[in-house]
């Protein structure tokens, strides 16, 4: 009788374990945009990791759409299992290209990000609606020995332009460590975007001065966003000032 009861208990435990077993969570790949770096995702990464998600914050080269998308594509290709691909700002154009050809990319999340259609550039979309003030906040271009120029935001204007809802001390650190983007990258035209085939989610703030909220709303609607979160007053770095809202949407996309 004891052996029978023990066998029943063991079978019950095994069955219970099988019933509650969950598939591995997808890996979240975060792609920063111009004038930012991978550390801009720190608050989001902390939440995602706490909730059990593997995370990679890729170092976007910011040299050209083709070059940057190829790099992110290589990162995605190195990951076994499903991927949620997340882009901020110019990084949205990068993920729209990098996701193509990867069956493991299951969803796209655009965080204050560009989602160009074929033949569009981020420069085209930034000027499509009034309200953007980036051009007046740029520092003098840095000439590159190989040709072309790098663009930075003037550090004195960075807080107001890029991160107005972030504490001034934190914004000053971000300004000093900002990653430049080539002028040519912002003019690069997109190919066929992955958002036409993959489900997408969007989050942005009404206080964005780099990409007008009207432009962000237009792109979200055009892409058929599954859910669009608009954060009142949030700046262009909504993932820094509101990491909880951004992480929540990413986790929704991961389901």
From TrEMBL:
It comes from the Bacteria. Residues 1-21 form the signal peptide. Keywords: Signal. The keyword Transport does not apply. Residues 28-248 form the AB hydrolase-1 domain. Coiled coil: none annotated. Transmembrane segments: none annotated. Gene3D superfamilies: alpha/beta hydrolase. InterPro entries: AB_hydrolase_1 (IPR000073), AB_hydrolase_fold (IPR029058), Sec-Metab_Biosynth_Hydrolase (IPR052897). This is Pimeloyl-ACP methyl ester carboxylesterase. It comes from Rhizobium lentis. The lineage of its organism: Bacteria, Pseudomonadati, Pseudomonadota, Alphaproteobacteria, Hyphomicrobiales.
């Amino acid at each position: 009788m004891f052996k029978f009861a023990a066998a029943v208990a063991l079978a019950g435990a095994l069955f219970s374990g099988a019933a509650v077993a969950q598939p591995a969570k997808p890996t979240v790949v975060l792609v920063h945009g111009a004038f930012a770096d991978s550390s801009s995702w720190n608050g989001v990464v902390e939440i995602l990791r706490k909730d059990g998600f593997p995370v990679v914050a890729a170092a976007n080269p910011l040299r050209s759409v083709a070059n940057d998308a190829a790099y992110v594509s290589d990162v995605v290709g190195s990951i076994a299992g499903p991927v949620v691909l997340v882009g901020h700002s110019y990084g949205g154009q990068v993920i729209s290209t990098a996701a193509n050809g990867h069956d493991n990319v299951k969803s796209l999340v655009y965080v204050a990000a560009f989602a160009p259609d074929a033949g569009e550039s981020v420069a085209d979309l930034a000027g499509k609606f009034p309200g953007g003030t980036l051009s007046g906040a740029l520092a003098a271009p840095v000439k590159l020995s190989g040709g072309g120029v790098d663009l930075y935001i003037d550090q004195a204007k960075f807080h107001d332009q890029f991160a107005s809802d972030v504490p001034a001390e934190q914004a000053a650190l971000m300004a000093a460590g900002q990653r430049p983007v080539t002028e040519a990258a912002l003019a690069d035209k997109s190919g066929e975007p992955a958002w036409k085939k993959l489900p997408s989610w969007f989050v942005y703030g009404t206080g964005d001065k780099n990409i007008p909220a009207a432009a962000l709303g237009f792109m979200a609607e055009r892409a058929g966003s599954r859910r669009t979160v608009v954060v009142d007053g949030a700046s262009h770095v909504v993932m820094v000032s509101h990491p909880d809202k951004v992480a929540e949407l990413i986790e929704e996309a991961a389901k």
